[in-house]
Design a protein that fits this description.
This protein is of the alpha/beta class. Helix content is about 35%, strand content about 15%. The chain binds arginine and manganese (II) ion (MN) (2 copies).
């Protein structure tokens, strides 16, 4: 019988990678809604809880993207905390914030796990580069950066960071891809389960297959969960909502199954925007989904 892991809860109140303000408020807001207390009630072992800020830092690279210096500085601070956590045997859980912070998480993780699998549950692929981004928003590029396809690389954020192989990336829930992302996904052969696949196969089969693909020849699996994967009728409080998403029930089942997998070694939860929410509907769902994930961890 495996025991629940020690969790390092890393809050990142940062939202400058998104197109609209508000996601920086999510960590405090979810904690205010009682996240920590209910996790403790559910028997989660929260080993430590930290707020990640970033000092002033000269960016190692200039990019034609909005707020790239701030994104890089925050990512560097986060990468260090994530690296420290995994080195100490903790399970890092990163609470954002916008999705640009995944670059920091992945930089820290890839320095520790030479072969990292990534399961990306999101309406988007976040696989633009600086030259294909239609918006200039940094939250649209982390998964291209992680593969070493962009000007910015994970090693700009953290020395010793590696890359993530496209063979070990699995996209779930993607339904709003930019043209360059489509080309990249097809040419690199990246596994992508859209909503039609989920309805046809069922979410349980999709998650089992995702764990198999992301886990093949890897040392750990990271889950990156963007709340805009869930349909806007149930999760309206997010900056780039896309119709036709997961039901909250599918999201719950996905997170339960991922939590129960001994292969899962880290996770992050991003893109909740309290300023765009309706009566805390999205924030409350987020609290519930995080509880499902973390209370089932067994590794
Ligand atoms: N993490 C997110 N919500 N990303 C949305 C990205 C939207 C669009 N593909 C872009 O690159 O700007
Ligand atoms: Mn995203
Ligand atoms: Mn998204």
């Amino acid at each position: 019988m495996k025991t629940p892991p020690k969790i390092a809860l890393l809050s990142v109140p940062f939202g400058l990678g998104a197109g609209n303000p508000g996601s920086e408020l999510a960590p405090r807001h979810l904690l205010h809604l009682g996240l920590l207390q209910s996790l403790q009630r559910l028997g989660c072992h929260i080993d430590e809880q930290k707020d990640i800020g970033a000092g002033i830092q000269i960016p190692p690279i200039q990019l034609p993207m909005k707020h790239s210096a701030e994104v890089i500085a925050t990512g560097t601070a986060l990468a260090g905390e994530v690296y420290t956590a995994v080195s100490a045997g903790q399970f890092p859980f990163v609470l954002g914030g916008d999705h640009s912070l995944a670059m920091g998480t992945l930089a820290g993780l890839s320095a520790y796990y030479p072969r990292l699998g990534v399961i990306w549950i999101d309406a988007h692929a976040d696989m633009n580069t600086e030259s294909t981004s239609p918006s200039g928003n940094m939250h649209g590029i982390p998964l291209a950066v992680a593969q070493g396809r962009a000007q910015l690389s994970l090693s700009h954020l953290w020395p010793g960071a590696g890359i993530v192989s496209p063979a070990n990336i699995v996209l779930i829930g993607a339904r709003d891809l930019d043209p360059a992302e489509e080309v990249l996904i097809h040419s690199a052969g990246i596994a992508c389960f859209g909503i039609a696949d989920i309805r046809k196969l069922g979410i349980d089969t999709v998650i089992a297959e995702a764990i198999r693909l992301a886990g093949a020849n890897t040392d750990g699996i990271h889950l990156s969960f963007d709340i805009d994967s869930v349909d806007p009728t149930e999760a309206p409080g997010t900056g780039t909502p896309v119709q036709g998403g997961l039901t909250s029930e599918e999201a719950r089942n996905a997170l339960r199954q991922l939590g129960l997998s001994a292969r899962l070694t880290s996770a992050e939860f991003v893109e909740v925007n309290p300023l765009l929410d309706r009566a805390d509907q999205t924030a409350k769902l987020a609290v519930e989904l995080i509880e499902v994930l973390l209370s089932n961890l067994r590794n």
